[in-house]
């Protein structure tokens, strides 16, 4: 099937330029059409109380991803509609050490759906205890 | 009314997962459909001359928000169509001190419309005097 | 022609608020409608091997832009459909020195199409040798 358009079922569709190395844990790009869901930057806190219960980057990332999924659900969308994740971490070494564990948490919470991603280390986030903030975008067909 | 789809009038619609703490000055997410407006990262300078007249973060933020509104207007859109703001500040302490004043400026310029937001502190912006850069996205129904 | 809507041919359309200084190398905003292409953050490596061959910021930026174009092509899109570029550089002085050369590379690879842009300096990127990461979004009419 051509990558020109969203998949036959209208779902967001990964893009893979010919000859490129397989992406690890993300897509090189996504094509999609439909209504849009913009998820605010999620941090790894308990969304009911807006308080952190852990300073561990993996624990926080898992919680931030759960929070992303909860916002998607409020729009009647799911992780399979994600087209982009932009990750802001505050410590590169900490992130690299946690990467395998973060990957495992990702697969548990989001599944095997990998949208387009960008990752940058920033000097700080608003919440002092936040180790990561994840901004997400989804497209729901129809 | 269900949060599944954009509001009855097609306007961007805030998303609020059940049981979550009320967001302060932003939405947890936005659902929207329509034509898109992508606003370039706005800094707090005078857009006619591309020069700064203040080094104060609140003054700059107010001007950057006015600049966002001006670009929206050029697309026949308004603040009520905003679905996402991504804020890059250069100094976290400065931002936290200015937060109440920034909130007041926001309500004056944008109104009570709060889209999805993410905030990150970055090491620098292109313009030496810039204390903040705001990237904005809007969706106009129809 | 009014800037209210995408251009007559449906292509993404630059927005220019009245009285604003002409933007240098970017648009103040873009209006667009159609299917969306989300390009993952591109770094300046060889995408076939995922390895860097240069530590020069201009060389890396040119390669990152070529990578953006390759992902667009996999969606049957081109540089003319770009609506937003977000650039993350790791060193402001390095970026400012390279700016003229980066501009020349941009015009060679992307052409005279300038979407909405934001630029931030971040503390680090995931890949140790990466000097820049570029996140891109495109809208294809129809």
Can you describe this structure?
Three copies of one chain form a homotrimer. Chain A is of the alpha+beta class. Chain A is built from two helices and seven strands, in the order βββαβαβββ. Chain A has a four-stranded mixed sheet. Chain A has a two-stranded antiparallel sheet with strand order 1-2. In chain A, helix 1 crosses helix 2. The longest helix of chain A is centred in the middle third of the chain and has 18 residues. The radius of gyration of chain A is 15 Å and the shape is globular. In chain A, 56% of the residues are buried. Chains in contact: A-B, A-C, B-C. At the A-C interface, strand 2, strand 4, helix 2 and strand 5 of A face strand 3, helix 1 and strand 6 of C.
Sheet with the most strands, sense and barrel status of chain A: 4 strands, mixed
Taken from the alpha-carbon principal axes, the silhouette of chain A is globular
Total number of helical segments of chain A? 2
Quick one: which chains have the greatest interface?
A: A-B, 29 and 38 residues
- What separation lies between the terminal Cα atoms of chain A? 20 Å
User: What fraction, in percent, of the residue positions of chain A are helical?
Assistant: 25-40%
| CA radius of gyration of chain A | 15 Å
Poorly predicted runs of chain A are none
Tell how many strands the DSSP assignment of chain A holds: 7
Overall pLDDT of chain A: 95
Percentage of residues in strands of chain A: 25-35%
